[in-house]
Write a structure and sequence with these properties.
A: mainly alpha, B: 269 residues, alpha+beta, 59% helix
Chain lengths: 128, 269
């Protein structure tokens, strides 16, 4: 069983994109082929979310995706949901530790953006 | 236009082959899921296949290296393996040092052998009242060139009275402190360097003994250490090569043992 280790931030863009994608599925947002909230997402849906600008705009392939998921499972951020609509598809969801790591990273990014705005590097109210 | 199964078949076949290049524990868990992910991507009509191919090639290049490095790290960072290797390396280093120090000591100590006998005999003669000039052999030995043992007799103040050897035309004397030590302890065995310097320096394996009696003084028996030092260098090289050899065997053995005992099952699932 994977044990949760302390989150190491800043996270890599790939890990952040995976966490965001999985967090999004828990909020009830699913794309047409997702089985539903709380059941997690399979690899291709995560890859697809990550490619979107709001998902991090990370273009990753299956090797990078499953390598990252493997390490995230070891770090206790992600777990397999156990659901499978096809034996070759694996579904993943966030753990409590994963939520905590994501929240920490987002707070860090928020603070960075706030600081950048204060310095006038990003227009107030502009997209960040 | 929907890609046909045939169009998807070739990239899938290539990718099935490519997933075989991942480390066995990784691919046993994820290969099927990775292939399914690619199948899903190929069936997604919103992604141009050319773009997908570029992502896939880059992904293979990066993730193959990454997963193999992760597997090597997992294989060789096991505490028991590292601990065993460190213990063996420490033992090899200890053995290498012993192979260096012990023969050096034996060589150095045995370099005193003829001088001990010469000094003993000469002290006995002087204490019987024989004059230094008569007791010391007449031959003149060049301390810098000759490997023959020689003797020198000094008076109680450390001035030479008779000598079998010379260095650059004079009879050198050890530092005054050495005579003081011999006054207290009766004898000293030391390496004396009348001419300093690594190149061209002269080192003498020296036995200095106190002469008691009516005419107190000192007897020095010495021998140039050039040959002993040459043997010490050979011992040093052999010990160094032995140490390197042992470390090489430990390294190769640890790598081989680590590889054959690597975790066969993926740790996570």
């Amino acid at each position: 069983m994977a044990t949760a280790t302390s989150p190491s931030t800043p996270l890599s863009p790939t890990v952040l994109a995976i966490l965001l994608s999985l967090a999004e599925s828990e909020k009830g947002w699913t794309s047409e082929s997702s089985p539903g909230p709380w059941e997690g997402k399979h690899g291709y849906l995560i890859m697809k979310d990550a490619r979107l600008p709001q998902g991090g705009a990370v273009h990753m392939g299956p090797g990078t995706l499953y390598g990252s998921l493997d390490r995230m499972i070891r770090d206790g951020m992600v777990e397999e949901s156990g659901l499978s609509d096809d034996e070759r598809r694996r579904y993943y969801r966030l753990t409590q530790h994963g939520h905590s790591v994501l929240a920490t990273e987002l707070s860090r990014l928020e603070a960075t953006l706030t600081s950048a705005r204060a310095l006038g590097l990003i227009p107030h109210g502009g997209r960040s | 236009m929907t890609p046909s199964n045939n169009e998807n078949g070739r990239p899938l076949r290539f990718y099935r082959w490519a997933t075989q290049l991942y480390p066995q524990p990784f691919r046993s868990v994820y290969a099927a899921a990775m292939q399914q992910t690619l199948r899903d991507a190929l069936n997604d009509q919103t992604i141009p296949h050319r773009f997908l191919a570029a992502v896939l090639i880059r992904d293979l290049a990066i993730s193959l290296v990454k997963e193999h490095l992760a597997m090597l790290r997992e294989t060789y960072s096991r505490p028991a393996l590292v601990f065993n290797a460190l213990v063996l390396a420490a033992l090899a280093t200890g053995l290498g040092l012993a192979l260096h120090v012990i023969p050096m000591q034996v060589l150095r100590l045995s370099a005193n052998d003829p001088q001990i006998a010469l000094a003993d005999d000469l002290v006995a003669q002087l204490e019987r009242g024989i004059a230094p000039a008569a007791a010391v052999p007449a031959a003149t030995i060049d301390m810098a060139r000759s490997l023959s043992p020689f003797v020198i007799v000094y008076d109680d103040q450390g001035h030479p009275l008779a000598s079998q050897a010379q260095l650059n035309g004079t009879v050198p004397a050890p530092p005054a402190g050495v005579f003081d030590q011999v006054r207290l302890r009766g004898a000293e065995r030391l390496s004396w360097q009348p001419v300093l310097g690594r190149e061209g320096g002269v080192r003498i394996a020296t036995v200095l003994q106190r002469v008691n009696g009516a005419h107190p003084g000192f007897v020095l028996a010495g021998r140039n250490m050039r040959e002993v030092e040459a043997r010490e260098q050979v011992v040093q090289k052999l010990a160094g090569m032995t140490w390197l050899g042992m470390m090489g065997v430990i390294l190769v053995g640890t790598l081989a043992f680590g590889w054959y005992t690597r975790p066969k099952d993926h740790a996570v699932l």
